[in-house]
Structures are given as C-alpha cells and as structure tokens.
Design brief:
The chain is of the alpha/beta class. It folds into three domains: 101 residues, Beta Barrel (Elongation Factor Tu (Ef-tu), domain 3); 116 residues, 3-Layer(aba) Sandwich (Rossmann fold), CATH 3.40.50.80; 105 residues, Ubiquitin-like (UB roll). It is built from ten helices and 18 strands. Strands 4-3-6-1-2-5 form a six-stranded antiparallel sheet. Strands 9-8-7-10-11 form a five-stranded parallel sheet, sandwiched between helices. A five-stranded mixed sheet has the order 13-12-18-14-16. α6 packs across α7. Bound molecules: flavin-adenine dinucleotide and FE2/S2 (inorganic) cluster (FES). FE2/S2 (inorganic) cluster binds next to loops. The site of flavin-adenine dinucleotide has 25 residues, from β4, β5 and α2.
Length: 353
C-alpha cells in the first residue's frame, strides 16, 4: 500500500460558500502537517471522497490559497453537473470534518514569481490561478494580468478578493472580467485581441476544455511560444490511489539470458534534498521502483493523467508508456511522468527539485 507518510488526514477548519455552487474548504494543520503540506502556487491536493458504491473515489483539487500570505491552505470545489465527488464535498464537508489527502503536487506553477504573468482562467479554473495571483503579488515583482471568464456575475468565484487585490496593487494587477451573460462566449478572435498587449508575459491557462483551446489557439496565433504557455486540465481520475495503490514490485532482471535487455539500468535520483542511486529493472516504472525502495516520491493517479509524479530527466533517456497530461514542450524540457517511465539508457539521472 501507499507509504503512510504520503497520506495526510486533515481537519477542516472552515467551509466558505464562495458562490451558490463553489465551496472553499480551509484546513487546520498540525505543525507536522504544515511541513508535509509545503506547496508551490498552482499545485493541487488529491482528496479521498467516500463512496457507498466503491469505498471511495480520488479527485484532484487545486490549492486556491497562497503559501506566501500566511493563510491556511484551502481548496475550492465547484459542483460539476452530474458529478459525484464535487457534490459530495459541497453537501457534506463541514468544520471539524476530516479528509484524507495526498501531498501537494503538479507542475502548473511559475518558475519565478518575478516574471510578468498572463493568467487566463474560466469558471473553477480560477482556483490554481488565484494562488498564483496572490503569491506573485505578495512575493514577486512582475506585472500580473488576469483575464477571467464566467457565465454571469453571480458565478464569479473570488470576485470580492480580486477587487481588493486590484485596489491594493493598482500598478501591478490588471484585472479583466469577461461575462458570457453580457459578452457571449469568448471566441478565439476576441481572446486574441484581448491578450495581444501581453504576449511577452508567461501565460497560464485553466478552464473548461473549449475555453482552454480558444485561449491557447489565440496565444499561438500571437506567436507566444508553447514553452511560455502552461495549461492545467481539470479531469477526474480514473483510478484511485487511496484504494488500489499497492506497490508493484520492481521486477528483478535475472540477467540469465546475458542480454543487455536483462541488465537493470542505474538511476540517480535527487529527491527532498537527498541523492539515491538504484538499480532500475528495465520493465519497471520509475515510480514503482522509488516507492518500493521506500522513497517518498509524489504521485496521485498513477495512470498518466494528473502530472503529480512529474520529474525532470537531467541525463539519459526514458520512455513514457502513457501520457495524457504533459505536452510536447514539457517533454522537450526533460519533464516526464515517473508513474509511466521505463529506462531506455543504461544510466538515467532524475531530479524532483
Ligand atoms: C490537477 C487538477 C486540478 C483540479 N482542480 C480543481 C479545482 O480546483 N476545483 C474544482 O472544482 N475541480 C478541480 N478539478 C476537477 C476535479 O478533480 C473533478 O474532476 C471535478 O470536481 C468533477 O468531479 P466529480 O466527481 O464531481 O464529477 P465526476 O463524477 O467525475 O463526473 C465528471 C463528469 O463526467 C460525467 N460522468 C460521470 N460518470 C460518468 C460515467 N460513468 N459515464 C459518462 N460520464 C460520466 C459527469 O456527468 C460529469 O459531467 C481538478 C482536476 C485536476 C486533474
Ligand atoms: S501520478 Fe498522475 S500522472 Fe503520474
């Protein structure tokens, strides 16, 4: 099963009704949990949501709080039409409830808070973006532009907080609201016009799939290189790391055939400030190997869907067996999913820093 240190049982301090269908869940952490829950703006937690049918389901929710403002960590959950977990959370979670979560993870986070940022969000896509806005304003020095689309005024999550931030940082935060009820659905062409003045910024896009496609197409048409466009896709995990995360034993290579294929590779891993060198059986996935060896490597879905296990290959090569979340540009930068990676070269170096 998952190493116990990977699951945190958090107490809910407060539930904030942000809009009629979006609730923020604020956590009350013990000092030990605070260290384990250290996160970067834009990262997410994986929550275990009870289910009478199957024990539980796992769902990712981005942290909408900032690690730099002294506020308690919180996630913000918006009801999905016909969805299970989002309704369960909004209907059942109360102050004093306890929720099991996996440690923060994800790669939707600015490399530097000092760069100029163009944040393009729609609906619940504001959640990780809110964390980035607050963090950049509190800790960084660049310009922050937020383009935020919603169905109507009542569905704007964090409207009040954003107004307060814009008043406090008039020289740094540009806030552009788009309301479908007034302006219609934003088209690629309209987004192109809106985003044109900010093409030198680092772009972050999060929202429903059609919105993300329109925003990304607009940015590409404005010649923003893909390496400067990060996207977070909100999908429901197919698997459940809480229920089924037995660790697949890393297959020992016998070497009996004497062939190159049977010799394990060697992997050097930098994780939590420590270095490890391990024999890596060629048919084992990197995450399976690390967990089996007792290392606290991050993960959530273990199916190539969430990016929680993303790490960087600093030398050597791996092959990803499945990938639904990293884009070609991420892979060009050396980012891979540990839960789907097997070695291609005899020596591989990996960094989680
Ligand atoms: C990295 C990441 C961060 C995220 N952050 C947030 C966040 O901050 N806030 C937020 O609100 N959400 C976030 N999400 C989305 C969240 O994880 C869930 O996907 C979302 O809450 C919907 O879950 P659900 O259980 O309510 O819906 P589900 O039950 O998963 O249903 C989702 C959709 O699938 C349909 N569906 C369900 N079951 C079936 C079926 N058997 N056959 C066909 N269709 C079906 C439903 O009708 C619904 O339209 C994030 C996702 C990821 C991956
Ligand atoms: S753990 Fe989700 S992609 Fe690897």
């Amino acid at each position: 099963m998952i190493p116990v240190s990977n699951i945190l049982r958090l107490r809910v301090a407060e539930v904030i009704e942000e809009t009629a269908d979006a609730h923020s869940i604020v956590f009350d952490l013990t000092p030990e949990q605070r260290a384990a829950l250290a996160y970067r703006p834009g990262q997410f937690l994986t929550l275990r949501v009870p289910s009478e049918q199957c024990g539980s389901v796992a769902r990712c929710y981005s942290l909408s709080s900032s690690p730099f403002t002294g506020d308690a960590p919180q996630v913000t959950v918006k009801r999905t039409d016909g969805g299970y977990a989002s309704h369960w959370i909004c209907d059942n979670v109360r102050p004093g409830s306890e929720i099991e979560v996996l440690a923060p993870s994800g790669v939707f986070s600015p490399a530097s808070l000092d760069t100029d940022l163009l944040l393009v969000a729609a609906g619940s896509g504001i959640t990780p973006v809110m964390s980035i806005v607050k963090s950049a304003l509190a800790q960084g020095s660049g310009q922050v532009v937020l383009v935020y689309a919603n169905r109507d005024e009542r569905s704007v999550i964090f409207g009040h907080d954003l107004r307060a931030l814009a008043e406090k940082h008039p020289d740094r935060l540009t806030l552009i609201h788009w309301l479908e009820s007034v302006q219609g659905l934003p088209s690629t062409e309209q987004l192109r016009t809106l985003l044109r003045p900010f093409t030198g910024h680092e772009a972050f896009v999060c929202g429903p799939p059609p919105f993300m496609t329109a925003a990304t197409t607009a940015l590409k048409a404005l010649d923003v290189p893909r390496s400067r466009i990060r996207r977070e896709k909100f999908v429901s995990l197919g698997g459940n790391p809480f229920e089924t995360a037995t660790i697949t034993p890393a297959k020992e290579d016998t070497g009996s055939a004497g062939g190159h294929e049977e010799q394990p590779a060697t992997v050097r891993v930098e994780l939590d400030g420590e270095r490890h060198e391990l024999a890596w059986p060629r048919r084992s996935k990197l995450l399976d190997l690390l967990l089996e060896r007792g290392l606290d490597a991050p993960f959530s879905c273990r199916e190539g869907q969430c990016s929680a296990c993303a790490c960087r290959i600093t030398s050597g090569e791996v092959k990803m067996l499945h990938n639904e979340v990293l884009e070609a540009e991420d892979i060009d930068e050396g980012i891979v999913l540990a839960c789907q990676s097997v070695p291609l070269t005899d020596e591989v170096s990996v960094s989680y820093e």
